[in-house]
């Protein structure tokens, strides 16, 4: 249900805690005792794991309170801060550090750290290192972590709730000026969270489809390119479903999902996807493309509410001419419906996991059995035919300062030209419910290239201009040559 890549190339994964035992025992005979759990008050099984990408192995983690439909973000030091959930977890904050070779690293929990119940809320890391937590079911406000344990009213969230909600898990994007773009249902605003005021309201998206949970479209902030002055922000939203799709699905009618893609420039520009899609995940790829993966063609998010899985990923190329921006990739053999996830790995693959559109785990006798598998999707740029063009990073500094010059050494067999090289940072997001929170790509300035020797080159670049462009923290750095990315290296922006 939730995934986050950490700076040690391990992935924290977790589900909810209130469906009964899982198939993984907690180590050393440990058990979780929770008198508030709605199914199993003594539970000796794990509902969270730490997955090691390199070794394809995992170990169990202990989560105490219910993480069902919660949210998260990563602090500047690499610690995952995970917020809210259901029942005894709805006011909780949980943290886990990115430990190296530490078998005892586990969740730390603070059950009453939040001022309000945060179930179906969204998070965004901010330039000052705090996390803003927005909304949740029947929560028309936001708060900060760390903060002063108070919530701040946001009427926009009340105004965007319809008879079927459709404003949960609002889409949040930090803009280059430091303000926060918030999208809920069909409406969007810019919030100056420092002054607690809305500074801009955008027109509603064309058409009647809703885009947020349970209608569950998805959204990304397209790459922020510091070589373009002034630095522009463009928000992309795709998919969703009719505002009443959730109610109709409960009655056995599964409406066709939305087919539209929208760009905010600041008027909404509409495009058509190759197929209708709800509950899909959108991820920024290192070459600037967007992958749209997982989901269904009809219905909506929720228990038993989706039909007609879409197993074919779509690749969206923002810089291609209109009408030629979409390409379809190889289909997966596995449907990935409600409660599936996807994240980008540092090696450029996309890790996909989960799918459970049932109240409990259900492996037989249903249209879409609970799926506990992981699979990796290799985007087209990982084709062996492109290996001669693929840069391989040899050396890069582990820290990059704001506006500071730094150098990356790389090797490539068939170098084309300096203009084909760029240096990019990606902030790995927290993924759940079709939204990747705090996802961000920055295309860095400079990129002067010179040859050091046989097939070896150096590229000079400048660190991000401001924390508003790239909040302090750990990013994956890629060198891209002729639209073919290297494997990523972790760097700290400070």
TrEMBL record:
Residues 1-381 form the Glyoxal oxidase N-terminal domain. The keyword Acetylation does not apply. The keyword Signal applies. Pfam families: Glyoxal_oxid_N, GO-like_E_set. Keywords: Signal. InterPro entries: Gal_Oxase/kelch_b-propeller, Gal_Oxidase_central_sf, Glyoxal_oxidase_N, GO-like_E_set, Ig-like_fold, Ig_E-set. It comes from the Eukaryota. Residues 390-493 form the Galactose oxidase-like Early set domain. This is Galactose oxidase. It comes from Salvia splendens (Scarlet sage).
């Amino acid at each position: 249900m939730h995934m986050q890549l950490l700076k040690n190339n391990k992935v924290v994964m977790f589900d909810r805690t209130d469906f009964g035992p899982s198939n993984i025992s907690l180590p050393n005979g440990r058990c979780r005792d929770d008198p508030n759990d709605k199914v199993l008050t003594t539970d000796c099984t794990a509902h969270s794991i730490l997955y090691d990408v390199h070794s394809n192995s995992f170990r169990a983690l202990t989560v105490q309170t219910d993480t069902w439909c919660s949210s998260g973000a990563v602090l500047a030091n690499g610690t995952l801060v995970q917020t809210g959930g259901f029942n005894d977890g709805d006011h909780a904050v949980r943290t886990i550090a990115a430990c190296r070779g530490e078998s005892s690293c586990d969740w730390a929990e603070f059950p009453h750290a939040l001022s309000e119940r945060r179930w179906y809320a969204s998070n965004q890391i901010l330039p000052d290192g705090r996390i803003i937590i927005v909304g949740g079911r029947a929560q028309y406000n936001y708060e900060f972590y760390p903060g002063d344990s108070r919530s701040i009213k946001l009427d926009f969230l009340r105004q965007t709730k319809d008879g079927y909600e459709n404003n949960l898990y609002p889409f949040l994007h930090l803009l280059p000026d430091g303000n926060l773009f918030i999208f809920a249902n069909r409406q969007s605003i810019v919030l100056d969270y420092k002054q607690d005021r809305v500074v801009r309201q955008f027109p509603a998206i064309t058409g009647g489809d809703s885009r947020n949970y349970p209608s569950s479209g998805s959204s990304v902030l397209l790459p922020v390119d510091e070589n373009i002055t002034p630095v522009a922000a463009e928000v992309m939203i795709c998919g969703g479903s009719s505002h009443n799709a959730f109610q109709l699905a409960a009655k056995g009618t599964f409406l066709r999902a939305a087919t539209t893609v929208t760009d905010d420039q600041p008027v909404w520009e509409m495009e058509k996807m190759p197929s209708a899609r709800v509950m899909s995940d959108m991820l920024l790829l290192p070459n600037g493309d967007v992958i749209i993966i997982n989901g269904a063609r009809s219905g909506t998010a929720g228990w038993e509410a989706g039909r007609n899985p879409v197993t074919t990923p779509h690749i969206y190329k923002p810089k291609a001419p209109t009408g030629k921006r979409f390409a379809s990739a190889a289909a997966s053999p596995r449907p990935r419906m409600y409660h599936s996830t996807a994240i980008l790995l540092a090696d450029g693959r996309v890790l996909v996991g989960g799918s459970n559109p049932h109240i409990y785990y259900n492996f037989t006798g249903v249209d879409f059995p609970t799926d506990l598998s992981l699979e990796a999707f290799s985007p087209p740029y990982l084709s062996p035919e492109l290996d001669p063009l693929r840069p391989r990073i040899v050396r890069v500094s582990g820290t990059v300062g704001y506006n500071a010059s730094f150098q990356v050494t790389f090797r490539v067999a068939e170098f084309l030209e300096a203009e084909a090289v760029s240096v990019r940072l990606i902030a790995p997001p927290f993924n759940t419910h079709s939204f990747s929170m705090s996802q961000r790509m920055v295309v860095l300035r400079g990129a002067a290239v010179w040859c050091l020797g046989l097939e070896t080159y150096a590229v000079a670049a400048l660190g991000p201009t401001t924390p508003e462009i790239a909040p302090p923290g750990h990013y994956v750095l890629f060198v891209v040559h002729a639209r073919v990315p290297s494997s990523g290296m972790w760097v700290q922006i400070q």
